[in-house]
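INTERNAL AUDIT FORM
Audit reference: QA-55
Scope: verify that the stored structure record matches its stored sequence.
Auditor: D.O.
Record contents follow.
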Amino acid sequence: MKPIIEYQDYHTFLSDYYEERKRTSAFSWREFAKIAGFVSPSYLKDVCGGKTNLSKVTMGRVAKAIGLVGHEVTYFEAMVQFGNAKTDEAKKKFLEQMHSIALDHKVRIIDKDAFEYYDTWKNPVVRELAPLMPGAMPGDIAKACAQDVSALDVRRSLQFLERAGFLKQVQENVYVQTEKSVEGSKEGLPLAIRSMHRAMGNLAVDSLNRFTPDVRNVTGITMGIDREAYERIVLELEECRKKITAIADECNDITQVYRLNLQLFPLSKEVAKKEEE
């Protein structure tokens, strides 16, 4: 499903959300309505079909029911009011709000530069660290990294990030991020993304010995599940990731760069159940 900021019609957005939930779990219009607090089990179905509209009161309940957070809620509410507006002046007002939010929270999809970006963990770390240290030389940034990295490595990373448009140098050795988030295309370059996951996974293992428990959190669960449970867990992990991203976006006084790995993988082969005699 596309990010919410790529939608302008809330009816279509809600319909796509429902179809995505339906695809990955046993989801129904009745359950959707119940979660949002509506008595009529078909109300949201009628909204998605364009037969009726959300109101200023109900749009907040729906936003909460589908797990929107941070700027997503603001964008959804502007999108609802844009769709419901009766005059061109009102529509223009809410459309401008939507465009502003979309620009502020734009997500860059890496394509041709993905292999180089994901080639090393240093690029995403330097991209986050450099703006926190205005005027710092590459050697200073290297010393600020928790892992061993040379000043030359940092210089090369800065040159790439600036060339690829992920960082912009506004003054000598002063950088700003051009966009707040970077995500890799799952369809185009899965090999590059897997390479980064492996590198970050190795750093996670290393963190067990390198850092004390008060500055790192490593937990896990070993469990037995079926395919339906797996799909539901994946959906919950995605929602959790979105909420954590929203918390990070709201942070105005950044002092450190962290990495969060979300990992769910099999520890056994699939075991076929024996037929009862």
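Auditor finding: record pair retrieved intact. The CA atoms of residues 87 and 93 lie 10 Å apart.
Action required: none
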